[in-house]
Amino acid sequence: MLSAVRRFSSTPAALKSLKIGLIPGDGIGREVIPAGRAVLEALPAKYDLQFEFVHLDAGFELFQKTGTALPEETIKVLQNECDGALFGAVSSPTTKVAGYSSPIVALRKKLGLYANVRPVKSVEGIGRPVDMVIVRENTEDLYIKEERTYKAEDGTKIAEAIKRITETATTRISKIAYNIALQRQAIREASSVKSIHEQPSVTVTHKSNVLSQSDGLFRETCRKVYDANPEAYGSIEYKEQIVDSMVYRMFREPEIFDVVVAPNLYGDILSDGAAALVGSLGVVPSANVGDNFAIGEPCHGSAPDIEGKGISNPIATIRSTALMLEFMGYTEPAAKIYEAVDANLSEDKIKTPDLGGSSSTQEVIDDIIARF
C-alpha cells in the first residue's frame, strides 16, 4: 500500500456521492474496469460513500470506427462532472496510423495530469521484499511525439524525434516525489509493521552522461529543488542513478529503492520492468495525477491475446481504484481495498493464469470483495 500521497484535500468533505468516469478503452480494459466499479460499490457502509458512474469512450478501436480516439465529450465530462476516473487499457499500433494518437497521453495533457505514480510492492512472505514507488513525469520527454522522417542525399530514410525536458515540469515532478517520500515515511513510523526502509530516499534517474543538456537539466533541477528546501526535505536521502545501471540494480537489489523519479520514457520502462519483481503487470497499479484530478490506470496493456477469455487479472485495476481514492483523500476505504487484495495474493489460492493459477477474472473479484 502506498499509504499516503499528496492529496487534493487532506480532510475531504463529508461527500455522500462521488461521480467516477469509467473509460474501458481497448481489449481487456472492458473486462477489468468493471472490477474497479464492483469494489467501489461493495465498500462497507461505514465509509459513508456512494458512487455514481458514467461510461466514457476512448481508444484505438474507437478511432478505427469513428476516426476519433478521444472524443471531446469524454474530456468535457471528466473536466466538468467527475470527481475521479478509471482508465482500462489502450491498444498501441506499432506502425504509424495517420490521424491517431494515444488517448491516455492526450488525457494527461488536457487534464494537467503531470505525474504518473506507480507503487510496486511485494506481499509479505512472498518472494523478495520490494516496496518502491516510481514517479514518472507524464507530459514531455519523447512523448511529445514531435517526429519527422526524411531522406538523406543518398535516398535512405532518416527518422528524428525531439526529446523535451523543461525546468517547470521537472520542478513539479520532483516536488511530488519528495512529498511522497516524506508521507510514506510518516506512515511507516506510525505503523507497527517493520519496513524494509529505515530512511526515506529519492533516486533521481537520468542519462546525463550522454544527454548532457536534456537529462542534464532534469538531474540539475531535481537537485536544485532538493537543496532549496532543506527544512522540508533534509530527512530524505538524495540519490542519483544512471538509467542503465538503475535497471541492473533494480533487479539485483530492489529492496534499496524507496521512491524513484524519472523522465517520461525511463519511468515508463522502469515501472513495467519493476512489475516482474512482483509477479505480473496484472498486479501493478498506477495513477495519473494533477493538482485537482486523478485517473487510476492499471499498468498492463490491452492484451488482445487473452481478450474475451475471462482470465485477465483484475488486481492492477482494483489497486488503481484504491490509489485513485487515496489521491481524492479517502485513505481508509483505500486501505480496506489494499488489505483485501494482499490477503487474496498471500493465500495463493484464487489467482489468474498470469500468476500461475486457473481462476477467472470474476472469481478473483468475488474473492477480494468477500474480504471486505
UniProtKB/TrEMBL annotation:
Molecular function per GO: homoisocitrate dehydrogenase activity; isocitrate dehydrogenase (NAD+) activity; magnesium ion binding; NAD binding
SUPFAM superfamilies hit by this protein: Isocitrate/Isopropylmalate dehydrogenase-like (SSF53659)
Pathway: Amino-acid biosynthesis; L-lysine biosynthesis via AAA pathway; L-alpha-aminoadipate from 2-oxoglutarate: step 4/5
Cofactor section: Mg(2+)
Keywords, ordered alphabetically: Amino-acid biosynthesis, Lysine biosynthesis, Magnesium, Metal-binding, NAD, Oxidoreductase, Phosphoprotein
Reaction equations catalysed: (2R,3S)-homoisocitrate + NAD(+) = 2-oxoadipate + CO2 + NADH
Top-level division of the source organism's lineage: Eukaryota
Pfam families membership: Iso_dh
GO cellular-component term (any): mitochondrion
Residue stretches making up the Isopropylmalate dehydrogenase-like domain: 19-368
Any one of the GO BP annotations: isocitrate metabolic process
Signal peptide (UniProt feature, chain positions): none
Enzyme Commission code(s) on record: 1.1.1.87
UniProt enzyme class: oxidoreductase
Family classification: Belongs to the isocitrate and isopropylmalate dehydrogenases family.
Protein name: homoisocitrate dehydrogenase
Biological source species: Suhomyces tanzawaensis NRRL Y-17324
